[in-house]
């Protein structure tokens, strides 16, 4: 385990990474954490698998997800709500689980509603993945570090990267609701996971590059309690 400014844990593979992250969830719970910020994508799958197998009890806890595609209903198989139900909530229910509502009639009202959810339930532990271009949540390069929840136009690279979950690239929604970086940075502690060589560039920029809106994850250098869990492939471009 090497400490730069963030706490960096290098693991063999995503399974070991998920095990470490689930242990950190477990410890947080034991220390009284009640509000968990959750992420989707392929990266946190192993964390959820380990949590499902664990004795952890979220029934008095609250979860708040980072983001959701605009236009998808909670029952759509590609929606993040559906992903969360299938990967975690069906096995480990929370007292209340919040996600932005993809099919909300009014986007402005929806982002306000979500900001209130976050303000009313300060996040104790936030889980993050990272996009190949350094995005966190759906905060794409260039997003202001001050943003709270907002509707975002996805970049072509994010649409291409997420096309694997859809039948056709055309079907990938072009917009999403995302918790903003300003809100993510208010979480008391953060775990960011990255596995695989296609994340190596983003991981190096996040940890060793300048803090810049061009690499949204680089803002985490300014947070006092971040643990980065990476496999060897994702850590390959780190100098130290
Ligand atoms: N909005 C999500 C992010 O929350 C996720 O961290 C990232 C990486 O996804 P994956 O874990 O599938 O590589 O991409 C998506 O666009």
TrEMBL record:
EC number annotated for this UniProt entry: 3.5.99.6
Boundaries of every Glucosamine/galactosamine-6-phosphate isomerase domain copy: 33-227
Domain of life: Bacteria
Single biological process term from Gene Ontology: carbohydrate metabolic process
Keywords: Carbohydrate metabolism, Hydrolase, Isomerase
Annotated PROSITE patterns: GLC_GALNAC_ISOMERASE
Reaction it catalyzes: alpha-D-glucosamine 6-phosphate + H2O = beta-D-fructose 6-phosphate + NH4(+)
Pathway where it operates: Amino-sugar metabolism; N-acetylneuraminate degradation; D-fructose 6-phosphate from N-acetylneuraminate: step 5/5
Active site residues according to the UniProt entry: 67, 133, 135, 140
InterPro entries listed in its UniProt record: Glc/Gal-6P_isomerase, Glucosamine6P_isomerase, Glucosamine6P_isomerase_CS, NagB/RpiA_transferase-like
GO cellular component: cytoplasm
Enzyme category, top tier: hydrolase
GO MF annotation list: glucosamine-6-phosphate deaminase activity; identical protein binding; isomerase activity
Assigned protein family: Belongs to the glucosamine/galactosamine-6-phosphate isomerase family. NagB subfamily.
Protein task: Catalyzes the reversible isomerization-deamination of glucosamine 6-phosphate (GlcN6P) to form fructose 6-phosphate (Fru6P) and ammonium ion.
Name of the protein in question: Glucosamine-6-phosphate deaminase
Species: Liquorilactobacillus mali KCTC 3596 = DSM 20444
């Amino acid at each position: 385990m090497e400490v730069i400014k963030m706490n960096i844990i290098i693991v063999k593979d995503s399974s070991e990474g998920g095990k470490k992250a689930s242990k950190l969830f477990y410890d947080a719970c034991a220390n009284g954490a009640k509000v968990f910020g959750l992420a989707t994508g392929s990266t946190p799958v192993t964390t959820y698998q380990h949590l499902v197998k664990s004795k952890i009890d979220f029934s008095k806890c609250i979860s708040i997800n980072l983001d959701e595609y605009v236009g998808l209903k909670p029952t759509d198989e590609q929606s993040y709500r559906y992903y969360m139900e299938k990967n975690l909530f069906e096995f480990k229910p929370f007292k209340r689980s919040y996600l932005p509502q993809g099919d909300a009639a009014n986007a402005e009202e929806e982002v306000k509603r979500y900001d209130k959810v976050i303000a009313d339930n300060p996040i104790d532990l936030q889980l993050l993945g990272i996009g190949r271009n350094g995005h966190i949540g759906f905060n794409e390069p260039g997003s202001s570090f001050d943003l709270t929840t907002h509707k975002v136009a996805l970049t072509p690279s994010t649409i291409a990267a997420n096309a694997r979950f859809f039948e056709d690239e055309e079907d990938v929604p072009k917009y999403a609701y995302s918790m903003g970086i300003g809100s993510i940075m208010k979480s008391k502690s953060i775990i960011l996971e990255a596995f695989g060589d296609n994340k190596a560039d983003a991981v190096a920029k996040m940890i060793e590059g300048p803090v810049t809106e061009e690499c949204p994850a680089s803002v985490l250098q300014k947070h006092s309690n971040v643990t980065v869990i990476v496999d060897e492939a994702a850590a390959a471009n780190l100098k130290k």
